[in-house]
Structure formats: structure tokens, C-alpha cells
Specification:
This protein is an alpha/beta fold. It has helices at about 20-25, 30-35, 55-60, 75-90, 125-135, 155-165, and strands spanning about 45, 65-70, 95-100, 110-115, 135-145, 170, 180-185.
């Protein structure tokens, strides 16, 4: 994920506990959000994974034959994720990746990607969506969710246009609490 300048919107690792509060699990239940999109054996990608609020449920949903590439720009977040994954018994299914200042690259193609409350944190959205598109199989899906109170509809639509220009087309607008959402699909390459 290209970072051309520091971004004050990024949650520091010292506040990671805010990302996994119990009330959030009630309002934005990760299993409920992800279950329609994931099944045993899939390879998933969690972009901006933080301490694993979505990564751990993803790993459970893809099962023992699946895997999750967890990407973040902060090593501290990845360390917290690995520690929790070990507690939850899914560490072997998760591949942590530290993103560089110019983007992220993973070595395998994914069936599904998640970008939850993080697109607004990335200054170069075109580079972000290019990396995502390159990481998805043809027909692969991307679920994008942004906070309504922080991202305007115009900003969200501009992000979706950037994704569309790179072959990621909106196929659904799932409803989620306090979110602007879109499910996108990578077209044939």
C-alpha cells in the first residue's frame, strides 16, 4: 500500500485493543459478515488486518485446508495477531505479511479479500486496488467497508471508481451497521 506521507488516521498498535472490543463484535460480527463469502479450502486476504478482528474468524471459516494472508503496515499489529491466532488454534492457517511503504505483494492468489475500515487510510488508492487486483484470482471477490461517519458517499464512490478502473466491479452492496459497503469481483484477465 503506497504511502506518500504519514497518515494520522492509522490506528497505532498501542490502541489495538479498541479494534477488538466486545461491543464491536456485537455490532459488526465478523463471522456473520464473512460467512457468505468464505468456505473450507479457500485462500483469503485481510488487508489492514490489525490485531486480527477479522483474520481469526477468516482462518476458522477457511478451515484446515485454507489459509489467510494477513497484511498490515505495523509489525506490532502482526505480532498481536500471531499471539491471538496461537491462542485460538489457527496460527498455522495465517500468513502474516508486513506491507512496505510502496505496497504489498503476496506469493499466492486469493479467492477473497477484505478491506474493512482501511481504504481511507491509504493515500494512494489506485496502488492499493492494483495490489488487491493482482492478488485475486479471476472471479475473486473483494469486500470493502468504510465507516459512514468518516468517509463521505462521494469519497466512497471515488474509491469504487478507482477499483473499477482496475477491473474490480461492484456486484453487490451488502448492508452493515455504520458502513458504506461494496462487494466487488475481479473480471477475467
Amino acid at each position: 500500500m503506497s504511502k506518500t506521507k504519514p497518515n494520522d488516521d492509522i490506528c497505532p498498535g498501542s490502541l489495538a485493543w479498541l479494534l477488538v472490543l466486545g461491543i464491536r463484535r456485537w455490532l459488526q460480527n465478523p463471522t456473520k459478515i464473512l460467512k457468505p463469502h468464505l468456505r473450507e479450502g479457500m485462500r483469503a486476504l485481510d488487508i489492514g488486518c490489525g490485531p486480527g478482528f477479522f483474520t481469526i474468524p477468516m482462518a476458522k471459516l477457511v478451515g484446515e485446508t485454507g489459509s489467510v494472508a494477513a497484511v498490515d503496515i505495523q509489525q506490532q499489529m502482526l505480532d498481536l495477531l500471531v499471539k491471538e491466532a496461537e491462542k485460538q488454534g489457527v496460527k498455522s492457517r495465517i500468513e502474516p505479511h508486513l506491507a512496505s511503504s510502496t505496497g504489498f505483494k503476496i506469493d499466492k492468489l486469493c479467492d477473497f479479500a477484505l478491506a474493512f475500515f482501511m481504504v481511507h487510510e491509504v493515500p494512494d488508492k489506485e496502488a492499493l486496488f492494483r495490489d488487491i487486483a493482482e492478488s485475486l484470482v479471476s472471479g475473486g471477490m473483494l469486500l470493502v467497508a468504510e465507516p459512514k461517519g468518516h468517509v463521505s458517499l462521494d469519497e466512497f464512490d471515488a474509491s469504487l471508481k478507482a477499483a473499477g478502473d482496475l477491473g474490480l466491479q461492484v456486484v453487490d452492496r451488502p448492508k452493515m451497521f455504520f458502513c458504506r459497503t461494496a462487494l466487488l469481483q475481479k473480471g477475467p484477465t
